[in-house]
Amino acid sequence: MSSWRIYGAVGLLLLTTGCSLLGEDTEDVPDVKRDQTFATAGPRQLTDAGPAPGVMREAWRVKGLGQGEEARPIRLEGGQLFVAGADGFDVYDAGTGQKRWRYREPGRELTGFAVNKDDLVVASRSKAGSHLTGLASGTGRLRWERGGDEGRPFTHGHGGRLAMGEGVVPLLVRAEPSGRDEEEEPDEFLALDAATGEERWRRPHHAPSGCDADTRSAATDTDGSVLVFRESCRDDHYLYAFNPSDGKPLWSRTGTSDDSLVGISVRAGATLIELDEHTRTLVGRDGREIANLNGIGECLPPCSLWSVGDDLGLIHFDESRNMALSVISVSSGQVRTLTTPHDTMSVTAGGRWYGVSSKLGGNLLPARLNVLDAATEQLTTMPLPLNLESDVGSLRWLGTAGGHLLVATSKGGDLVAYASTPTEGPLELGGAAKDEWPQACDLLKDVPGKTIARTPMVEGPVKIGSQELARSRCHVDYSADGEDGQAIVEVLWVAANAAEADGLVNGEAGLYGADEVQKTSDEVAHVRKGRFVVKVQSRQEDDLQRIVAGVVEALP
């Protein structure tokens, strides 16, 4: 049984401010070496929108972001892409993919960073001690630095998202242990000005008796409008919300749950509190409940709020384990739930929901992009020219900026931006008409030896949005040099042009006369010629080259 109880923020008294942590003594500041470049001006402003429905084409690409376990975390902040590494990050223009500046601290470990408008704060550590650095977020110019051992910043997740709100960075300052006969001093919340590094406010914090100090964190999944501090003591969880700019207490809550962690997400002054998959509530800046979300189903982790136009959205599973998007009106608390495709990764922007799945349908090579307009509830399905069944791996990051869909994969090592263009052809098929798909048996005109049997087959039909596509497949049995063989061809995709098919086959250019050939085994190859992609199989390994060459010759 889980429950929440509201308490007044009693005892959180504002202390005097303006005192620097360092004062006149700078001996606690580690000597930090920096390797950095700078931008001459801040980034251009980009709309918070992804592409409109249309034919998706690659607009630009950033290469070399690491593969597998070495893949570097990506964060989209204020029109810039921050690509983190062990000791710093590289910053790219989110509208063009051009590199803008970099910041590194060689020999030190990056433990977290936060961006809020013009301010960027970096936390790092080494044997010499912890360190905080303030930079101008648009150019990378150094603003301030200070030792970071007095207070601990709040970080979360891979890539170290640092808590920040309205230009301040909160720290937790642990009180020094007192003697047995002395009253224990309280811990403190300390907020630093992100632009100057100076202290903005302090507040004492009395932790619940017997609370494990290591189970403390701050809400880092936040847009900065509210700072929420959490600590847990066995099955009891305590939350304290503050106005970031001056530390004024907004509300506090305590709840009981068997789960050791509590999910917190803040958008537009509203806070989503999750005790477990059955107990969720959305509270406003004044601590009052906006909406009870207990019955909407398990979140797609992490349980985060999304901006959906003027409303908030929550992506989750419904009772049938289908993907759903609940849209919550902050003003009225009304919740409407939209069924969405079961996609592997999704994001919202500009009032639209974007979801990507590994398959468009059946054995078709392109990934599937679904776009749901939250206002009209219109769903559009289209191919994304990305083959997630090849060696690029699975999706690992998805974002939108300036009308682009930004995609990074687990093994590809690249970040790709896709834009859309209108088409007169069927959008679900990338603008290519169904009658432009060749018959597979027409491609197997040339096989070794003597043809014994030719068997056409139909694969499908596959339903893609409003379109149904029947794909052809052909088996040809033949005899050559006293041995029986079999050739199989299946049409996997026909794009509107060659550029839109490029990238679906990550193979060797020019092999067997094709534009690209990717051998998935000794007997199987994916072949691209122009805008056509086919799968070729041969029972006899030695015959594959001749069969592929014949298929390439037969393709338009």
Automatic annotation (TrEMBL):
UniProt superkingdom: Bacteria
PROSITE patterns registered for this protein in UniProt: PROKAR_LIPOPROTEIN
Gene3D superfamilies: YVTN repeat-like/Quinoprotein amine dehydrogenase
Residue span of region Disordered: 195-218
All copies of domain Pyrrolo-quinoline quinone repeat, residue ranges: 32-252
The name this protein goes by in its record: Pyrrolo-quinoline quinone repeat domain-containing protein
Organism: Nonomuraea diastatica
